[in-house]
Amino acid sequence: MGPLIGEDGVARCPWAGGAGVMRDYHDEEWGRRVHGEAAYLERLTLEAFQSGLSWSTILNKRPAFREVFHDFDAEAIAAFDDADFARLMDDARIVRNRLKIQATITNARATVALRDQEGLEAFMLSFAPEVPPAPTDTAEMATMSAESKALSKELKKRGFAFVGPTTMHALMEAIGIFDPHLVGCFRRGSG
Q: In sequence order, what DSSP letters do the residues of 148-182 get, joined into one string?
């Protein structure tokens, strides 16, 4: 399926159909480059929490995620202890998944450690595909790539968790490592 024309006359990727949180995310954020460690850690965390759930669920809980994870300040999260973990497990405003919460703390610690090298942003950007995909319909859209497999493998080597190749491909799309929009979508090429 190619881009669809919405009631507003604009061609978009088909998952961004009607008005609401998904279309807003598509139009304003998905595929746009983000900057800074906290932005990268936030997207990495949200993609991990999304695994097995709908993206709209995560977007609707995003304000609470930002609050409980201190706007994704890696040092603050890295300092979380057992009491913080218990507090998060009791907070119904977020997804209360033991493994995903622990992965967030683990990933914050790995992010802090990565500062001694190139840092999280530069590290992730180094996995940009040489030839970015340019799908014309959803059947051509990949759910993983050689680059997402390599990113997953290297993140795991550096102590990150919940960073499988499919999740990393979704992350690469979300943060604009390459343009994920279908050819014909009004956002294609707008960075």
A: HHHHHHHHHHTT--S--HHHHHHHHHHTTSS--SP
Is residue 47 within 8 Å of 166, Cβ to Cβ?
Answer: no
CA gap 120, 38 in Å, rounded:
9
Q: Where are the alpha helices (DSSP H) in the chain?
A: 21-28, 37-50, 55-68, 74-78, 82-89, 98-114, 120-125, 146-157, 165-174
Q: Tell me: pLDDT of 112 over 90.
A: yes
Catalytic, 15? Answer no
The yes-or-no answer on residue 55 being catalytic is: yes
Residue 94, φ and ψ in degrees, nearest 5? -115, 175
Query: Is 88 in contact with 68 (CB distance < 8 Å)?
Result: yes
* pLDDT tops 70 at residue 191: no
Structural domains of the chain, with CATH: 36-133+146-174 (1.10.340.30)
Among the options 47, 121, 147, 173, which is catalytic? 47
Tell me if residue 25 is catalytic. yes
Please give the model's pTM, rounded to 2 decimal places: 0.94
CA nearest 125: which of 47, 190, 177? 177
- Phi, then psi, of 11 in degrees rounded to 5: -85, 125
